[in-house]
Each structure stands twice: as C-alpha cells, then as structure tokens.
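[Meeting: bench + compute handoff]

Bench side (C.D.) handed over the final construct sequence. Compute side (W.E.) agreed to return the predicted structure before the next meeting so the bench team could plan truncations. Sequence as handed over:
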Amino acid sequence: MKRSIVTIALTGGSLMLSTVQAQTNGQQTYQGVVGKTLAESKEWWPEPVKAPANAPNVIWILLDDVGFGAASTFGGVISTPTFDSLANNGLRYTNFHTAGICAPTRASLLTGRNHHYVHEGGFSHVFASAGFPGWDGRIPSDKGTVAEILRDRGYNTFAVGKYGVTPDEEATDAGPFDRWPSGKGFEHFFGFLGSETDQYKPDLVEDNAHVTPDGRHFSEQLTDKAIGYISKQKKAAPNKPFFLYYAPAATHSPHQVAKEWSDKYKGQFDDGWDVFREKVFARQKQQGIIPANAVLPERNPEIKAWNTLDAEQKKLYARFMEVYAGYLTYTDYEVGRLINHLKSINQLDNTLIFVIIGDNGASKEGTLHGTVRGKGTGGQTQGITEKEFLQLNENGIEQIGTPASWTNYPLGWAQAANTPFKYWKQDANAEGGTRNPLIVFYPKGIQDKGSIRTQYGHVNDILPTTLEVTGISAPESIRGIKQDTLQGTSLAYSFADAKAPSRHREQYYYIFGSRAIYKDGWKAATLHHPDYIDENSFSDVRKTINSNYDDDKWELYNLNEDFNETVDLAKKYPEKLAELKGVFDETAKKNNIYPFIDWDDVFKRRIHNAPKTVSSK
C-alpha cells in the first residue's frame, strides 16, 4: 500500500488536514479544512477522474493463427468484407510484426514491451514456463497493461475472448486473481484464460469465475457480451470512452464453424495449395501489398506438390481448407456485428480501432495431414502409421469443423495461408512466423484513407500508439507501483505520412530456439532445429535434431530489398552478420532471453510437470 504523509496545521482554531501524495490513479491531495465543528470546516471531494477531452473509444481486435495471405484484405482469397471496409477507410500496414506465437504476442501487446522483458518467453502453462526472469509466465506489476493505464485515466475497460497469459496454477475459481484480466485492469471479462478452447464447449470465464457455456458458437457469445458492455456503459455515461480488447479464439484450432459458413467455399480449394499460393501472390501484387518485383518462395520440401496427391487425399485436404475459410469469414461477420453496433449508436466515427490479423503466422500444428479429432489423435500419433492416420481422418471427413471434431488443417495450407513468406507459426526467425497484417481505423485522425503503410512496426507499438492518439502519457506509477519504461514506438507519426522513415529500428525475436534480430532493415536469423516440423509429422526428424545452439546456421537478409527473405547474404556480408549476432546477444541480456529454452526442453517439462498441471482448457 502506498504511504501518505499527513500534516496537521493550526489555522485560526481549525485543523487543515493535508494528505501529501502523488496525484496519480485518481488520488488527489485533500484540499478541504477540518475544524472542530462543522461551522469551522470546509468540505471537499476529489474531482472525478476523466479521460482527456474528446478522447476516442479504443478497440483492439486480435485474431489468432491466421497467416498473412489468408484474408481478402491483404490479397487472400478468403472473404473478409468487414476487414476490407475498415482498411479501405483506414490504413493497411504491411510491415507489422508479432512475436511468433500466441502468449508472447499477447503479453507484448498488452504491456507495450518485449515478451521476455515481461516474463513471457514461452507460455504461462506449467509445462512451457520456467523459473527464470524471462520465462516464468508472470507479467510483473511494474510492467502495467493498457487496461490498467486507461482505467486510471477515465476509461471503462472490457475484454472478451482469449486471454492466454494467466498461469495455469492460478486459473481456478480460487485464484489468486492478480493475473486474471480483472487483476490487470479489465473491469469486465468474458472468455477463456488458456491457449485454445472448444468453440461450442469453451472453458468459459466471466469476470472472476468459471461459468457454463450456452451451446452457441463462442464467437457469437463473446460478440454479444462486447455489445452488451458497450451498450450499458454508453447508457450510463454517454460521454465516457471505453477500451475493448476483442480477441476471439478464431482461427486457432479447433476449426469449428456452422456448415452454412464452410459450405460457402465448397469446391473453391479443389485446385490445391500450390494454385492457392500463386493466386494470392498475384492478388497481393495487384493490390500493392507486396513489391512488384517480389519472388514467390519455393514450396517447403516437407510438403508434397498438390498434383502428386491421390483423389482421396485431395478431397480430404480441400475440405479442411473449406472449413478454415468459413471459420475466418464467420469471424469477420462477428466483428461486423460489433462495428454495426457502433454505427447504430453513433460511436464508430469516434472510435480508434486496431485490427491485428493473427498473433503469429498460420499454424503448422495440424501435422502434414490435418487432424479431425486432434485432441484424441493429433497429440497421440505414436504407434500408428501414416496410412492409418490418413484413414482415420478420411473416415471422419464429415465431422471436420463440427462440434464433434477438434480440427486443424494440413501443413500445406499453413504455407499457403502465409503467402508470400516462408515458414509459419513458432518460427521466430522468419517473416512467415512473425509478420502479420495490421489495420488502423480512426475517421477523426486518418485522412489518407485506404492507403498502405510500409513502416516497420511491432506488436509492442500498439500501446504507445494508443496513448499518443488518446492524449494520455505513460504513468510513472499504477496504484502505487512505480512503472518500468515502455519499449514500443508509437506509429502515429505514420498516419499522415506514407514516406516517413521507420522509427522502430531494432527488434529481437525468439521462440523456443528459433531467433532473429532486426536492425535498420537488416535481419540476421537462425531456425533452430531446422528439420523439425511437428511431433506428429510421421518422420524421424527428431532423431536427427542437434540441440547445440552454437551449431545453428545463421542467415542474413536485407529486408529493404528482399522483404520475404529469398536471398541469404550471410556469406557475402560476414561482417554484417557478426555485427547483428552481437546485437542479438546484447539484446538477449537486456530482455531476459537467456537461458535459451527450446521445444525439447518444453517436451521434457510437459512430461515432468503433467501430474501437477491444472488444466485451463
């Protein structure tokens, strides 16, 4: 608790009581007079905390596991009309980055700092956290969240959907609740605390307690809650701004959606993932999303050419993508319901909206063949053959996407959804793992509507951008706790100037061994365990893994000229590579990245900690 110094002065027979303390978080110095009698006293009440004049509402929308080339808004062939409209009336950022996997991205987003710096090197799950400053999965109180900042500056704060940064051990109705959304500044929360959940039977939490889902799709429920929070707040305080963090489970597995949505794409992916990549690549050039001279990377060698698959494989794999596409379009529809509500109450023009289309690249976790009942088979494929696994999926083709399934698509579709980049989710070394589309919509603050921005950005930039636009300074303390510095860079400078040079000039990436360092357009990167795709890939790659970090092969790219990493310059510029590796080491020490922890270590911890794990799913 914060200490106060109480001074008492005798003034004309009266006592003046003065509480001397910092005027932060709504706490104000007492300015009245306390006498022996009411006649000798002067009453005083603190002024209510108000947001800056004309401060807008703020909405952050964060999707899950989408991929750069999936949505039509950024050249994809999957229809996302709501995102299209927001981008056409706002800005598209094509050089924006996440951390490469869900919890690190969310921790960085919420705090405006690097993910190891806020202790989220991996996850907050027992098996994937470790007892080191960068890895314990517990965001410190001196690294406050956007919700804590805005709440204390006159905003109401709501969150719906996936939270993902509450430690498993604390995710029960007994708490403690310090690291639940309510303990991190959100006045209302409706969603789940873990990394993934069933879309029809979610592990559902409302405020500080688990509740029973009603059987509807989770996205419909969370959108209804978001609309309800806004409606009640605006009815009670029409001029008070709100902050909404809208983070659906979509499109993380399980891919579950009503057939009316998936059937919209019947037959549209029969040409396969190779044709898909070519179509999207051409659309991205046409829309100006990527440079005109860009080259499409070769298909990953682990993935078979579509024309070499047999008819049953093609039928099965195409259905996986139909379901995924329907899932993404349905998610766009639910966001559209939220946007239409803002229109109906005349709040849309006064709302700053950020849409981050994915917290990392498209997911490689669906194996080479996809999973129909992933929880029962996807993690337990040892002991069955590739043929048996394929038959298991083929026999369940009608279940794909239904409440009876736990679906994720095959690896070939992950690469297609990540067009025009190499690799995918978890690969922090590659743009395919870390580059995600960003939309910024703010009618009052953006004049150059529908244009593209290429400035380098990172997920830790969204909080500083929000503060600058709303006119709020980063606080020195939150509820009496002195705050550490922010690490992100506001993107507001780029709103009115497409040619402004990037201000976010340096950024590290690290996810379970794979790592990179970016500085002024140059990037050094290494894919730790380069032959490793997934534990369910039915190959012997795990036998050939070399866990020696010193043996990792580093690559070097000039992203100013080669945005999607097609030309490795490591041999041509060894001095530059050495320089950047040195920068990475310095950054690693500052941000608590050491000790290195990779997926082998995570698997060992999963086995060791399994009996003690409290499920958050």
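W.E. noted at the follow-up: The longest helix spans residues 311-344. C.D. will use this when planning the next construct.
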